[in-house]
Each structure stands twice: as structure tokens, then as C-alpha cells.
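Next comes a concrete protein, fold included:
___
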Amino acid sequence: RDAQESRGLGDVYKRQDAELLELKGSSVVVYTTSSTLVGVILDDPEARAIVDKYLPGFSTEPRIDQGRGFTLAFMQKFDSKTITDEKLAAINADFEALAKSRAGLK
């Protein structure tokens, strides 16, 4: 899984540990829908806003706390009509842009 994921992420990222990816040349963490836990995303207001942009109401869903230990990609298995591949890709792109912004890159 890691080798396949690394190929998909390209040269922009380096593997930090099982949960976090860093933007190359910085200590800024890059969230992804396949490696970042929902709880981490919900605790970061900017990341939470990105997810809510593509999945309206996600962060305020009454049972969302039950999903804090899962990734968005894992949660897709339970609601693939709402959490589509296209939405996950768009969220990942916005997460990358957020990390670059935080690192002072454009």
C-alpha cells in the first residue's frame, strides 16, 4: 500500500510515518484522504472547512465522532455515492494547497 500510495503522491511528499506526510523541504504536514484520520481533520478548522466544502455537513453530522479514527477513504466504503473518488481527489488537491500555503509556498 505504501509504495503504491507514494507513487500516486509523486515527488512532492516524503513519508514521515504511518499517519503523516510532510511537504518536501518543510515541516508542514500534508493531509490526505487516505492517510489522515478524520479526527485530525476535524480538529483543524481550515482542513475541516475543506471537507465541508465538498461534503456539506460532514463535520456536523451527529455521529461524526464515531468516525474520528478512520480516514475519509475508508469511510467512502460506507457511502460511495456521497464520498466519491472525484470529491476525494478535490479534497486532496485543496489539502496540498493548504500545506503549501502554510509552508509559504504558492
In short: Confidence is low (pLDDT under 50) at residues 1-19. Helices lie at 2-9, 38-42, 45-54, 72-76, 85-102. The beta strands are 13-15, 21-23, 29-30. The CA atoms of residues 81 and 87 lie 10 Å apart.
